[in-house]
Recover the amino acids of this structure.
């Protein structure tokens, strides 16, 4: 494995960790960056599997809360209901992900212009939603009704189109359904855990025969870098969005998407 390949894998891992939990589409960013850097991974496994590094950051930051949640579940109806809400929200992604996996990986992941356009469109939606004067009905992610959780899970499926953003779809969905900005981001954190673990496991099963030593080395490097970057973002994000909202991320999407469209038109 060359030094340049290792540096590219590390850069893409850092990019994944920095963007996984903010509504800008981590997959869209690393696919576009990989396109312009000439990075290719067998079966596009790298782009999916390094996301588990970011998820481990959630476990590190939220470890105590998760431990309390699961250990109290046998005697606490509120804890059991919240765990059920997250699983209900996760279910649509399981169904759509399994049915559309090959189309997503072989068609959508290989269409950079679609990704760039989705970044711009998603940024416009994020700016619009951020400015809506919606009086929140829910300020605690653990209190979201089951039907609301299911609707958020259905909306999350839109993020299987690269450039849409998993966190962006779930946050916008939760905001539109009556959550405040902090609880919307927090529910997105919790939902990311089963979603990304499931995607990692399914992608590993699908690509186990084509992953060679170099590909696995790339994944390990990207995984570690994604974890380190995501720890920083998770600790910072909830406080930031509570004070400032999501406009910054909307403008970021529009700028990155627009520059990518120009680059694709000029350079291909």
């Amino acid at each position: 494995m060359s030094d340049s390949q290792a540096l590219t894998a590390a850069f893409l891992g850092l990019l994944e960790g920095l963007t996984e939990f903010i509504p800008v589409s981590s997959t869209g960013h690393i696919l576009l960056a990989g396109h312009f850097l000439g990075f290719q991974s067998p079966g596009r496994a790298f782009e999916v599997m390094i996301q588990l590094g970011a998820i481990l950051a959630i476990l590190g930051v939220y470890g105590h809360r998760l431990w309390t949640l699961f250990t109290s579940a046998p005697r606490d109806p509120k804890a059991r209901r919240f765990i059920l809400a997250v699983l209900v929200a996760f279910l649509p992604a399981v169904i759509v992900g399994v049915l559309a996996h090959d189309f997503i990986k072989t068609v959508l992941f290989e269409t950079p212009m679609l990704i760039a356009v989705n970044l711009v469109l998603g940024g416009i939606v994020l700016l619009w939603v951020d400015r809506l004067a919606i009086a929140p009905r829910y300020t605690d992610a653990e209190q979201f009704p089951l039907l609301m959780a299911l609707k958020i899970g259905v909306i999350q499926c839109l993020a299987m189109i690269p450039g849409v953003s998993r966190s962006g779809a779930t946050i916008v969905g939760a905001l539109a359904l009556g959550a405040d900005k902090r609880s919307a981001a927090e529910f997105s954190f919790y939902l990311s855990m089963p979603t990304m673990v499931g995607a990692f496991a399914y992608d590993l099963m699908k690509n186990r025969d084509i992953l060679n030593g170099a590909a696995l080395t790339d994944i390990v490097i990207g995984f570690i870098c994604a974890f380190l970057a995501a720890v920083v973002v998770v600790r910072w994000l909830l406080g930031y969005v509570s004070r400032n909202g999501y406009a910054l991320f909307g403008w970021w999407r529009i700028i990155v998407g627009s520059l990518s469209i120009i680059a694709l038109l000029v350079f291909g």
